[in-house]
Amino acid sequence: MTDPGPGGSVGRTTWQVLAVAAMVGGGASWLLVQLMEYAGSPIPRVPLTAATLIFVVALGVGALAFYAHQQIQVKRRRVLSETALTFLIIGKTALLAGIGIFAAYVTLAVIFATSLGTPLGGERVLNSVLAALAGALLAIAGWFLEGACIVPHDPEDDSGGAPRGGEGSPAISG
Length: 174
Description:
Blueprint: H1 15-39, H2 48-74, H3 81-113, H4 121-148
């Protein structure tokens, strides 16, 4: 683990962490379907409300990302450390959860694609694809919120244009 430096900065989520989140999401949904088939249980329908709820959460995170971007990047206002940390936690959580949800529902759509001829097959595939798209929107909103928390460069600073608080650190004021 690297030393975050004097500012106590937190970096962007790496692609390796995102890949693990995708594998966990896809693997969990595949395992759940396999266990249900092994137990002889019917595979439940994928409700349209799943995609709707994920989409609503993605809109909320997107609105928060816009607000944080305006406050931190555009208006260059300092925010309380608790607020910055909350923004960062929500952003990273939405990003990881969105990637996991996306992978889980893509996996379900692929599994259900083999049953397109059945009465519920088309509905399962469509609702899985819609939920996967909503998960992707959640991940994108989380990515933007995480990026909004990066302290912008302060050209008036004596440190030669270095960002306030260290490279890539959340916008924290003491």
